[in-house]
Amino acid sequence: MADEYNPKEIESKWQEEWEKSGIYHAEDDSKKEKYYALIEFPYPSGDGLHVGHPRPYIGLDIIARKRRMEGKNVLYPIGWDAFGLPTENYALKTGKDPRVVTKENTDTFRKQIQSLGISFDWARETNTTDPKYYKWTQWIFLKFLENGLAYKAKMPINWCPKDKIGLANEEVVDGKCERCGTEVVEKEKEQWMLAITKYADRLDKDLDEVDYPERVKIEQRNWIGRSEGVLIKFDDIEIFTTRPDTIRGATFLVVSGKEDKFTGKFVTNPATKEKIPVWEAEYVYSDYGTGAIMGVPADDERDRVFAEKYNLPIVIDYKKADFEEFGKKVVKYKLRDWVFSRQRYWGEPIPVIHCEKPARPDGRSGGCGVVPVPEKDLPVELPVVEKYEPGPDGESPLANISEWVRVKCPSCGGDAKRETDVMPNWAGSSWYFYRYCDDKNDKEFASKEKLKYWMGVDWYNGGMEHTVLHLLYSRFWNKFLYDLKLVPTSEPYKKRTSHGIILAEGGEKMSKSKGNVINPDKIVDQFGADTLRLYEMFMGPFEQAIAWSDEALAGPRRFLERVWRLKEKIADSNVEIPAILHQTVRKVSDDIEKLGFNTAISSMMILANNLEKQEKISQEEYKTLLKLLAPFAPHITEEIWAELGHKDSIHLESWPTYDEGKLVDDEIVMTVQVNGKLRATLKIEKGQSEEEIKSLALGLPEVKKWLDKEPKKVIVVPNKVISIVT
Ligand SMILES: [Zn+2]
Ligand SMILES: [Zn+2]
């Protein structure tokens, strides 16, 4: 046995072995308690993986591995969120079929992720662009349609003139396109919409039921923007206010407008009966409440600024009113319905057909209107196209393929056209966590039985940037499917956490354009996957952003080498187990649950230091350290475990437990003070009585010489001090 730690030799060997033995495959018909750990599935870009990607995967891998060792049947799956603009733009540039591009990219990502020894259940790998997958995305859309929650509306949409695409509100940042930074303009367009607002109240209220970080809840609540208020009529203008009690202080009315101006109109304040002017102003949003507010400069900061600017009266001293004289109680939300159309190519075709049968001679419409594609005809597959450019008016590239567009109406058999809009790339990620539960099912998106066993997700980790959009959308889909009794829980995720991103050395964001992206392949090649894993967990608190440092990789690598060498110290005979072992088991167990991976690792380092100082160490001690380390560094621990003569994987062992009674050393050193001065130390055994300790202390020669008479008082502070007063 060549005894040098050589990760290159052992890591790929164990990766193959694990895949062969299937130890990370979740079992659907297990009697064990289930545990569902989930990471946000990646978008397989052409750039491949960078070192930031695996941080959350490793974090939850540690959780998943610990749960397996705790006896749970763990589902820890992975897939690809592969529709969307980056791949389509690449196709536009190169003319390459997005399917081919996606295949190449996922192959690269898969190989890279597999080289890190993450315990994903690869047998359940899914891909949102697989027709077998998006068949069900389309099927769910038809459920929305059937239930009146998908509808078409001509409405002003956010339009990016550069990308030629309609954007959801969420994709507009400071008036600019989130993707390309171009100023967004308004454009009237027929759009498919999903009525997420119907669920606004439950999306807000049910946040009380889930274990999310408080700031995630706050961000979701702000986005939903629930406010209780009343509608009050000022003549023919209805306003919305959350402060109806201030109505007597209302000295003007403001309706939403593009600029500030007086309309020339006056209305009556129903409380004071006074005529007040009606203004238009930018600061009132057209889509909030009724798009009109009462101006109460004495009680509202923005109203006061407006009144001062335009010399409007300000009434300070007025009587607060009881609104039920004046208004109707309502709840308003800032949340808007979800623009669900994209005039692009690389997305799920929206599965409807527009019947074109002409109107009848009597003038009544003869057509069937919007007809859903029958379920037996799903999926509506994306046709192969030559060109990926949107049309001049921003139609989908699909509109140019007449042989695909022209179909017979499924209802009347007349001439009809396929819908050419596709879904946004939020669609596939709104339900992927169900598919993992039953990924081969071709009769349902997942069987009720399997969903009942696996759902909800016990722990979901993902980026802070997805706090509002993805999280809110998938909660909405879940609630809709729950109402149809198709999924078993009213919330999809029981617990949500977020990881901090990894920055480049020097603290900048990693980006291809800056050329500061670090490829994990290089690190794995040079140091091994276990070192990379350990480093990414050790570099700082998991939830905080942190800068990469090549130099700092050496520390975790040295630690693993020390663990490797410790096996030479194993003694045949029994060696006493020190308290520090119990302390470390407790610390590592607790820290993992709190995402304190860095502090867990440092306590294992302290334990290793301690063991190194011992002449001999027991098998028991060493094996415990290996088990604690196994979720962090699965390859090296598996290798040593096998060398120690075990036939079964260390990853199937039980998680170590500690003895509460052995957390402190058996021997305790106490100090002895006489009249406040330190005079001696005293070794006692754990569990000795106070009386025994007192008499031992008084019998010490260093103490005796300070006692010329009987002491007045002897105070024992347990495990610390014996204080003698004469
Ligand atoms: Zn754009
Ligand atoms: Zn028809």
Topology:
Elements: H1 7-21, E1 34-39, H2 54-69, E2 73-75, E3 79-80, H3 85-94, H4 98-114, E4 126-127, H5 131-146, E5 150-160, E6 165-167, E7 172-173, E8 176-177, E9 185-194, H6 200-205, H7 214-224, E10 227-234, E11 237-241, E12 252-256, E13 261-268, E14 275-281, E15 292-295, H8 301-309, E16 327-332, E17 338-339, E18 352-355, E19 370-372, H9 402-405, E20 406-408, E21 415-418, H10 432-435, H11 448-454, E22 459-461, H12 469-483, E23 496-497, E24 502-503, H13 520-527, H14 529-538, E25 546-547, H15 554-565, H16 579-593, H17 597-613, H18 619-629, H19 634-643, E26 667-674, E27 677-685, H20 690-699, H21 701-704, E28 713-717, E29 721-725
Helix pairs in contact: 1-19, 13-14, 14-15, 16-17, 16-18, 17-18, 18-19
Bound molecules: zinc ion (2 copies).
Residues 160, 162-163, 177, 179-180, 182 line the site of one zinc ion.
